Amino acid sequence: MPKLSVIMGVHNGAKTLKRAIDSILEQTYKDFEFVICDDCSDDNTKEILETYQKKDSRIVLAFNDTNMGLSASLNKCLELSKGQLIARMDDDDVSHPKRFERQLSFMNEHPEYSVVGTTRFVFDEEGVWGQVNYWGELSAIDIFKGKVFSHPTVVMRKEVLQEVGN
Prior knowledge:
Layout: E1 4-10, H1 17-25, E2 32-38, H2 45-55, E3 59-63, H3 70-80, E4 85-88, H4 99-109, E5 115-116, E6 120-124, E7 127-132, H5 140-144, E8 155-157, H6 158-163
Parallel strand pairs: 1-2, 1-4, 2-3
Antiparallel strand pairs: 4-8, 5-8, 6-7
């Protein structure tokens, strides 16, 4: 059983999905499962996902019968996940190749932390146009002021998520 489960909800993500999936499958840390829930897409997202699943046994797919939204799709992924650690990913993002290697190293060395996030670069078709980073631990006041973890940079302990009702 992998220590890490990567979860992603997707709805009509065909334009950017391949790049996002490739950035996960090309991680230097390889022992993970990638649980993806298609939230009733009406583009060719389902076909893209099924093609990747045939190529890589780490991919676990789920499909919603009706559009349920991101939170419900992610909770479905959580139910299917087997890892002790949960990494988030979105269908329009790209992860650094050493993301999981570095984050799991930190989580293993620091069992007192429940969540870790990273700097993120903001980009579009033209390239990188910004960077968001917060150093050190975030306080409740930091979060209140809008300094929050970016979903696709987060790794968290599954047991803690379950303790707070996902």
